[in-house]
Amino acid sequence: MTLANWCVLAACLLPIVTVGLAKAGSAKLKREEGRYNNQQPRVWAQQLQGWRQRANAAQQNGWEALPLFIAAVVLAQQAHADQGRIDTLAMMFIGLRLIYVATYLANMSNLRSLVWTAGVAVNIAILLMS
Q1: Counting CB atoms within 10 angstroms of each CB, which of 7, 75, 96, 127 has the fewest?
Q2: Helix 83-105 / helix 3-25 crossing angle, nearest 10 deg
Q3: What is the pTM of this model?
């Protein structure tokens, strides 16, 4: 398995970890105070506020970012593009996604948007290798 393929796996797991932060952060709360409710997870998510709401939004954006990243990696590999370059760009994307989540949680919207744009640019760079 290539490093880029491991990055695809990491990108698939990152949204789960991100929403896990919001869920774990509510574990000490009482149900009526906003503790995670597995019987009604979407209702629970709609009632989130602050950093937990931002963690959930970052999770949603993580799912939205996956199709372009996966397609870019797969298409570049199918085209037999330079695997070292694909690996490097895929690692850059994962790094940018980690920074993206951190800026989302920290409520740094302008920097978050800049990091998101960089992530899209990295995906386009990978895709152009195909």
Answers
A1: 75
A2: 10
A3: 0.93
